[in-house]
Amino acid sequence: MARRIGDVMTAHPQALPLDATVHDAARVMRDEGIGDVLVTYAGRLCGMVTDRDIVVRAVADGRDTAVTSLGDVCTAELATVGPDDDTGTALHLMRERAVRRLPVVDDAQRPIGIVTLGDITLSDGGSGDSLAAITKAPANP
Question: I need a surface site. Which of 3, 4, 51, 96 has the fewest CB within 10 A?
């Protein structure tokens, strides 16, 4: 049974401005025990950086994480959901985009939460159907 995103999301996601450094994001991820940070410009969502982005787009390319901005490594083309969307909508987007987390934004595109595959799996009673559907989706380049 689908539930509202606002009921299952993690509120108050960690966010940093576009000009923050990769090092700043890595430190937030370490300190908060998370794998992603939302990227904002003037308070509005403009991207997301994950721990994988840091490894693949910064460290593996030999970039100096102390000076490389999040704007240089974040994913800017994001699928988002709103708090009143249902988990079925989020699951469809996750499957379509082969991602495991989606930012939740308000009407002004300000980040208010994040919903993960784990959140949806727990909301569907832990059956694992959601996880299986995303795992079978082709990977993003």
Answer: 96
